[in-house]
Design goal:
- By secondary structure, this protein is an alpha/beta fold.
- It is 47% helix and 14% strand.
- It has an eight-stranded parallel β-barrel with strand order 1-2-4-5-6-7-8-9, surrounded by seven helices.
- Helix 1 links the parallel strand 1 and strand 2.
- The protein is globular.
- The protein starts with 7 loop residues before the first strand and ends with a helix.
Length: 316
């Protein structure tokens, strides 16, 4: 595979990677996207007539390369959810075994499954049997020590088609430096595609991860917050082409598009609240961004947010 053909994926982030964020990433060159994680148990326990309206399963027709991420620790529930959602237009089913949030790990889900490799293997095998779609898994380096290569071998035996590795342990959460040698070790342990994740912040770091780990694909998460252009930047760097960072005007214009997409998806009130964090990311590092965030956070109406952003762009 040529370096410029390497898949570059928008990683799933709860409360971040909803439909508008994913569409903007795809426009900038993301190969695939993954939904925010959906509880298999929560989905199945919802009234059947309400399941079709679960927001995390919404997909735009343009999202032909979208994976649905499920989490849970009960193999039968994972299997039932995967089976029921397999014909909703998703390209693959992704299992979350990497989320470090206490409310998730406290139930033995997410990265807590890395402490129970036999159960993790059973969960993956149940999903593989239940769906005609490819099943992938996202894991971490381990819980408090590196166990990813061992778990990766089990997941391969379960029939999964690819593994994404966030090269931090659960106990690190998102602090410290990602240990890319873990990704390399997983790559050596299995024959299926391995996706590297952790500390990819630009084209140069993306190229270094490919070189140092031998991974088959790249996953970008936090560095894509308010920065869908990172996918175009990575593509250009891997092709050896120049790339120009977005101007202030382009950042503001994209934030306004994001706002309009969010309103169309969720209505004005919810969209205005939801966009506060996204706008903060879009203008991060720009002159006067802290004052802008304060203003935006106090505005209840979409038109007020638009006017504020346009005024900021004109002034800066």
């Amino acid at each position: 595979m040529r370096r410029d053909d390497v898949p570059v994926i928008l990683g799933p982030m709860a409360g971040v990677t909803d439909m508008p964020a994913r569409l903007l990433a795809l426009e900038q060159g993301a190969s695939f996207c993954v939904t925010e994680m959906l509880s298999a148990k929560g989905y199945l326990y919802a009234p059947r007539d309400a399941r079709a309206t679960v927001s995390l399963t919404r997909r735009d027709p343009r999202e032909t390369r979208l994976g649905l991420q499920l989490f849970g620790r009960e193999p039968d529930l994972i299997a039932r959810a995967a089976a029921e959602l397999s014909d909703k237009g998703f390209a693959f089913i992704d299992l979350n075994m990497g989320c470090p949030a206490p409310k998730i790990t406290g139930n033995g889900e997410g990265s807590a499954l890395m402490r129970e490799p036999e159960l993790a293997q059973a969960v993956a095998a149940a999903a593989v049997r239940a769906t005609h779609l490819p099943v992938t898994v996202k894991i971490r380096a381990g819980w408090d020590s590196v166990t990813a290569p061992e778990l990766a071998r089990r997941l391969q035996d379960a029939g999964v088609r690819a593994i994404a590795v966030h090269a931090r342990t659960r106990m690190q959460f998102y602090s410290g430096k990602a240990d890319w040698s873990v990704i390399q070790a997983v790559k050596r342990a299995v024959s299926l595609p391995v996706i590297g994740n952790g500390d990819i912040v630009d084209g140069e770091s993306a190229a270094r991860m490919l070189e140092e780990t031998g991974c088959d694909g790249l996953m970008v998460a936090r560095a894509a917050q308010g920065n869908p252009w990172i996918f175009a930047q990575i593509r250009a760097h891997l092709r050896g082409e120049p790339w120009n960072a977005p101007s202030v005007e382009e950042r503001v214009r994209t934030a306004l598009r994001h706002l309009d997409m969010q309103i169309a998806l969720d209505g004005e009130e919810h969209a205005v609240r939801e966009m506060r964090k996204h706008i903060a990311w879009y203008v991060s590092g720009l002159r006067g961004s802290a004052r802008l965030r304060e203003k935006i956070n106090a505005l209840p109406r979409a038109q007020q947010v638009r006017d504020c952003l346009l005024e900021y762009a004109a002034q800066i």
